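Structure tokens please, single chain.
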Amino acid sequence: MTRAPVPPQAAPPRPRQAAYRRGRRAEGLAGWWLRLKGYRVLVRGFRCPAGEIDLIAKRGATLVFIEVKQRDALATAAAAVSPRQRRRIARAAEAFLQARPDLAALTLRFDAVLLSRQFWRRREWPLRHEKDAWRSDTRLPY
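Here you go.
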């Protein structure tokens, strides 16, 4: 009696691939949260040579550039947005506005959506939207 060949098992995901998938899931969750709050998500995962912006949304006359961070606690998620990363986001926002001059007349804002993975242990709401989390230190066409 011959046995059927056993299919090879899938290799476990590499750490960077797993982190990328976790980040994309966090961006999706943040996008839905913002939609529930009345924002219209225009772009998800905008990339250019200057940098990357996780979400770009519009609410009323405000265009919002959003950085999404997921960590074990909200405090560490907030601390994960470094000044260097803020500059890269501001440069990417400038590149986005050059590509979409129709949106340049709107009020611009930089927000952060923070997600916590330890909701049940820490008893904190797992998602926080920090409006106007930082000011751009580069010159944007306001």
